[in-house]
Amino acid sequence: MSDSPHNSLASTETFQPRATLRYTSAVGIQAAGVGAVVSAVQNALSSHNHGAFGVFTRTGGTIGFFGAMGATFALTESVVANTREKDDALNGAAGGCAAGFLAGIRARSLPVAIISCTVLGAAMGTFDYGGKNIAGGGSLSQEEKRDNFFKPTSLRPDFFSKQERSS
């Protein structure tokens, strides 16, 4: 297991402790913003007589729930990273598990909580292990990505004949 390139990279880098409260509050506020959008969509798609305030009165629990899940994820990930003094995929897996468990508790079902913990933990752990990039190839810099995207003119196919270009 120590032969893995991910483990050898983590051991050579020095750990930077995370500011737990700052990270938790930032992620919690961002997640609450996403929850507000979801709540607005829920409010728009349902029929009721509460008007625009239905975003807060009828479906406002969604805002708080999303914020709580984001804050729980960030807090757990940060505490685990600071305790272990390592920045690796296990931190994200623990945060995902805690957030998933919270989702299951909202559903008032222990089996759902355990399954949600497993699924979100595995998803976040895999995402972090893959370089925290959905597309993969997270080790390339922005300049390398641009160079790979734009082909040099010598490699571009010549679609026009010389005669068409001259006219």
Q: Tags for this entry?
A:
167 residues; mainly alpha; 0% strand; disordered N terminus
Number of DSSP-assigned strands: 0
- Unreliably modeled segments: 1-5, 7-11
Largest sheet: none
What is the succession of H and E elements? HHHHHHHH
Beta strand %: under 5%
Subcellular location: Mitochondrion inner membrane
Keywords: Membrane, Mitochondrion, Mitochondrion inner membrane, Transmembrane, Transmembrane helix
Organism: Thelephora terrestris
Protein name: NADH dehydrogenase [ubiquinone] 1 alpha subcomplex subunit 11
Report on the architecture of this protein:
The protein is mainly alpha-helical and 167 residues long. It has one domain. Helix content is 68%, strand content 0%.
Brief synopsis:
With 167 residues, the chain is mainly α. It has eight helices and no strands.
Please specify the SSE layout and strand pairing.
Elements (H helix, E strand, L loop, with lengths): L4 H8 L7 H26 L8 H4 L3 H24 L4 H18 L3 H20 L12 H8 L12 H5 L1
